[in-house]
Amino acid sequence: MPMRWLGAVLVLTASAGGGWMVARRLRRRPQDLRMAQQAVELLRTEIEYGATPLPTALVTVGQRLQGPVQCLLVGAGGLLGQGQGLSAQEAWRRGLAAAEDCSAWTPTDVRVLAQLGEALGATGAEDQIRHMELCMGRLRLAEEEAARVAASQARMWLYLGVLTGLGMVVLGV
Amino acid sequence: MLAVAQAGGPEADVLSFVPPRIRVPLQTMAAVSPPWLEVRLAAGRPVCVRTVSGDLWPDASGRAGDPGAAVHCDREDIERCVQIVTRASVYAWEEELARGFCTLPGGHRVGLVGRVRWQDRTVAGQKEFGSINLRVARPVPGCADAVLSHVLHGGSVCSTIVFGPPGSGKTTLIRELARHLSLGPPGLRVAVADERSEIGACVAGMPQFDLGPRTDVLDGCPKHVALPMLVRSMAPDVVFCDELGGAEDAAALAETARCGVAVVATAHARSMSELWTRPSLRDAVRSGSFGLGIGLGTDRRIGFVGALRPL
Amino acid sequence: MTAINVDVIWQIAGIGMLIVVAHSVIKAAGREEIAWMVTLAGVVVVLFRVVGVVEQLFAAVRSVFNL
After folding, report:
1. B71, B86, B155, B251: which has the highest count of C-beta atoms within 10 A?
2. What is the reported pTM?
3. Can chain B be said to touch chain A, i.e. do they have 3 or more Cβ pairs within 8 angstroms?
4. In whole angstroms, what is the distance from residue C34 CA to residue B271 CA?
5. Contact by Cβ (8 Å): C1, A160
6. What interface predicted TM-score (ipTM) does this complex get?
7. Is A4 on the interface with C (CB under 8 A)?
8. Is B89 close to A83, i.e. CB distance below 8 A?
9. What is the C-alpha separation between B101 and B88, in angstroms, rounded?
10. Which residue of B has its CA nearest to A53?
11. Which residues of A touch B80 (CB under 8 A)?
């Protein structure tokens, strides 16, 4: 009998934990997207007013932020600064791949950032600013959508995790 | 002069701006070839290294050979090279790219040509680069020793024009002169109007060549603006500038001379007689702005030193 | 025999409650179609539970009337 109860508790915890993780990811996505917008905004300032070279700009902006964008910017900037003849596009792609794992971004969000990377540094200041504004606009839309989704669905996943666990326990007992 | 290019020399500096794929054979070649003047990269064409003793065409293993067997550049190599030179930040180098050249750390310069964006009767920018020319800068210590006594007259400097064909070492010579005069004796205050960033090759305010301890460089400013500006702001004893030729230059030179500041300048001219055929130069010389002329030959030897006389 | 029946009743009651809560939570999250699907799944699960008991009932009836 006690073994049965222990198993029930384990199943319930696992299921509830799963629901909680999905909910947390949903709640973190707007935050991560806001941080990405902030990063692009800061990068724009560096490019527009400072004309800072990309390796330096990426690292300085990255160090002012936290989370996946820090991972992305510092990673890409570091790779560029090493002087291995890496293009900005390659460095950004690698940084993004590393940052994706520790972020709550969806594949769509990652694609928006990847698109910015394709243009980064390759054109004049005016064009760079246009690309960045476009990217910021898309990130803002994604953030609004993510906030809506988080508000309505995070709680659902939390409850659903617990309920599924309870259901399994009830059926199994 | 025909010394083997040593490792860590200016060639190694320049090679760090070449895409890695091409860098490797060139590094191998640099160890055994005479000093380099240029590395030329062009999309779809073989890599060419100009040295003091002729052109070399490196193959994949770094041996010099036939142009047909040499390493060929593709479009991606050129793009990559532009990225390395601009540190992946085209936006920060728009002006330089529009001008067609940038100065690298170490004083080397890169010439870039591609497709020009033409706007308001000027080159607004360039894209789709096709050819890149990495020019190796190499100071030649002591090249001014022979003329120093002529330029310096009892502690004061005689205004000098250095003329010669392209590549004859005019800029190298006046750079060395600037260093000598600044370092002293007599230790003069030297100002450099570096319109094309060739004399000092400043990167972020730091001259990449040693111009001496008492030297101030005004970078990238047209000469007719730079000369009065330097005279007013830095109170120099002597002003250096590169490549006279514009109509405004002569007036600015005369004005500078009137302030009691000596001028050392270069001019593109194969000979003294050619110097006189160019109206603006002729005016400058005739007005007595220059007391001394130094002519250089194609072999980088000093061919003429003396007072300028109207022909 | 009676003990098993009581167990099944408890199970069905529990599932019913869970399904009601799940339905309302999912509906609040704006996914009504999924909410109905969950409810339907709950009904199916309950039916499977009931099938066995109903069969026992039929067997009992048959044995009582010697059919």
Report:
1. B86
2. 0.75
3. yes
4. 91
5. no
6. 0.76
7. no
8. no
9. 16
10. B89
11. 85, 87
Structure tokens at A165: 């666990």
DSSP designation for B214: T
Residues of chain A whose beta carbon is less than 8 angstroms from a beta carbon of chain B are: 47, 51-55, 57, 80, 83-85, 87-88, 91, 120-125, 127-128
Sign of CA dihedral A111, A116, A122, A123: positive
Asked if B80 is an interface residue toward chain A (Cβ–Cβ < 8 A), one would say yes
Q: Do chains A and C touch (3 or more CB pairs under 8 A)?
A: yes
Q: Bridge-partner residues for B217, per DSSP?
A: B192
DSSP B92: G
For residue A158, give the chain C residue with the closest CA: C25
Domains and CATH numbers, chain B: 10-135 (3.30.450), 145-306 (3.40.50.300)
> Shortest Cα distance from A143 to chain B (angstroms)?
29
Helices (H) and strands (E) in chain C, counts: 2, 0
Amino acid at C42: G
- In this complex, the chains that touch C, judged by 3 or more CB pairs closer than 8 A, are A
Over residues B75-134, the pLDDT tens digits come to 999 988 998 888 888 888 888 888 888 888 888 889 999 998 888 888 888 888 999 999
State how beta strands B122-135 and B109-119 pair.
Answer: antiparallel
CA A72, CA A92: separation in Å to the nearest integer?
7
Find the largest Cα–Cα distance for chain A.
73
Task: Count chain A–chain B contacts defined by CB atoms under 8 A.
Answer: 61
Is some CB atom of chain C closer than 8 A to the CB atom of A3?
Answer: no
Q: Which residue has the tokens 């006046």?
A: B174
Residue A57 CA to residue A51 CA, distance in Å, equals 9
Find the CB nearest A123 among B79, B87, B91: B91
Alpha-carbon span B30 to B4, nearest angstrom? 8
The answer to whether A166 contacts C14, with C-beta atoms less than 8 Å apart, is: yes
Q: pLDDT of chain B along its 311 residues, tens only?
A: 334 444 567 888 888 889 988 988 998 888 888 888 889 999 999 999 988 888 889 988 888 888 888 899 999 999 889 988 888 888 888 888 888 888 888 888 899 999 988 888 888 888 889 999 998 888 778 888 888 888 887 778 888 888 888 778 888 888 888 998 898 777 889 999 988 888 888 888 888 888 889 999 998 888 889 999 999 998 899 999 988 877 788 788 888 888 888 889 888 888 878 877 877 777 777 776 787 888 887 776 777 777 766 55
Chain C partners within 8 Å of A171 (Cβ): 11, 15, 45
Other Cβ atoms closer than 10 A to B89: 26
Cβ distance B120 to B146 under 8 Å? no
